[in-house]
Recover the amino acids of this structure.
């Protein structure tokens, strides 16, 4: 039987990197693959790896709105995301971390 646990991360960022090789619109054919790499580097550069995980995902079912990035467990989605949005996403993640770490500190 599977062992159920709470997520070890404060934020888990999933970046759709699914590609259809140009047959239909897909995140991986746009900037999804580069986005994942740049987000991963940005998280590492900020020293957040202990709390934030960046993972690639398969199709999230909203291909027409891609590239798609989602953050869980907060349930935040970014659609039509580009490399220009990385700083905004990092800003949002920083706020989530600050709030959650402050919450943990007072418990
Ligand atoms: S290819 Fe990214 S949501 Fe479908």
């Amino acid at each position: 039987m599977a062992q159920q646990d709470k997520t070890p991360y404060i934020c888990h960022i999933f970046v759709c990197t699914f590609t259809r090789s140009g047959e239909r619109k897909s995140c991986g054919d746009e900037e999804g693959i580069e986005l994942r790499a740049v987000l991963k580097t940005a998280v590492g550069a900020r020293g957040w790896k202990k709390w934030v995980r960046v993972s690639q995902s398969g199709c999230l079912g909203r291909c027409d709105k891609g590239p798609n990035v989602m953050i869980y467990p907060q349930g935040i989605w970014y659609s039509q995301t580009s490399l220009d949005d990385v700083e905004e996403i990092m800003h949002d993640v920083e706020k989530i971390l600050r709030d959650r770490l402050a919450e943990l500190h007072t418990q």
In short: Strands lie at 11-16, 52-57, 69-72, 76-78. The domain at 11-106 is CATH 3.40.30.10 (Glutaredoxin).
